[in-house]
Amino acid sequence: MKHYDGLETRTASARTAALAVQLPAAIARAQLSVAYHDLLHDVHAQGVVDLEVLSHLPVTRKSDLIRLQAEAPPLGGFNVTPFRDMARVFASPGPIHEAQAEGADPWRFARALHATGLRRGQLLHNCFAYHFTPAGMMLESGARALGCPVFPAGPGNTEAQARSAAHLKPACYAGTPDYLKAILEAGDALGLDLSSFRLGHVTGGAYLPAMRSFYAERGLTVLQSYGTADLGLIAYESEAREGLVVDEDVVVEIVRPGTGDPVPEGEVGEVLVTLLDSPDPLIRFATGDLSAILSGPSPCGRTNARIKGWMGRADQATKVRGMFVRPEQVAEVMRAHPGLGRVRLVVGSEQGRDTMVLRVEAPVRDAALVESLARSLHGITRLRGEVRLEEPGALPNDGKVIEDTRPT
After folding, report:
1. Spatial distance between the Cα atoms of 334 and 316, rounded to a whole number of angstroms
2. Which residues pair with 324 in a beta bridge?
3. Would you call the peptide bond into 177 cis, given omega within 30 degrees of 0 as the criterion?
4. Would you say 285 and 231 are in contact if contact means Cβ atoms under 8 Å apart?
5. How many Cα atoms are found within 13 Å in the side-chain-facing hemisphere of 194?
6. 8-state DSSP, 193
7. How far is CA 152 from the centre of its chain?
8. How many CA atoms lie within 13 A of 164 on its CB side?
9. Model-level pTM?
10. pLDDT tens-digit readout, 366-407
């Protein structure tokens, strides 16, 4: 079976109709939690039927989770499922604590593993950690939902990993992009037969072209996915290898960093995710990662939206003259001056003193606009900086709002 289920090949009209049902249900369920009851108290859930309406709801950030979990442990009031009914609880750096609800494949990785080629009965060699953070259980639950046994290898002990793989003959590896290479090279050095590995599913790190070439030269199909401990699977690579297909149970928005404002298709921005089918929904959760929406459906036949993949971090806050400057502040400057294009605050150093240059795409050269932007920049950041107007399209489409060019 090429596709995991019929959801992957739905028509645009079927997707629109389904979203008009799923979104209100997700909002209404989220409002049952203490945190979202406060955050979304004035939202009429049944009216949130599409992305345009969703885009007006507040953004939930990791900083919100960290703060509220510290104030109201253990989960900050974001859970609808009673804590006593959770299957597992994890602790990730931040610290952020994530709860796993009961049920098969709660993080939805079966779909991604299926796209990689894993099928019932094949052994998954899982090199993600099982302790403290949920990555190991994420991939294991996905494999088990496909009817696959799992070797819970975890990370490290590379020689032992290679020997175990030679004995157990796993069909598929799961782990970071570079660690399968380490296992294969250890097997080569030990004279082991690791030819059972035909597939690999990688996440948790940059999957670079050189790594892709290494696996391709050995005849392996190694595809990637993108997810987080808070959200589970967000998007996954298919055999087309043209971007990552968004999971069927989430909504992805790309917004200008530091805001909740959607950017045009193809523009790089921050990834926001809304969980549609979760016992404990997250609404417009900011991942802090940069990506862009690709136009059109995937050549593999899957019709959901696609993202370009991980393109860096959106949290570009930096300290200038002893004060933090954040993308949210740059966005506030631009909201005071609508109708302009991309913006970039370039932080540099001159004769040992921090400098700021606000580069703004503008249709005309206007001294009054330069002066007004400079006043806004100073009023919002409490720091003075130069303003330079640029031709439309002059700034790169890379999602950067703050660029720190000071030597490290």
Report:
1. 17
2. 319
3. no
4. yes
5. 30
6. -
7. 25
8. 18
9. 0.89
10. 999 999 999 999 999 999 999 999 999 999 999 999 999 998
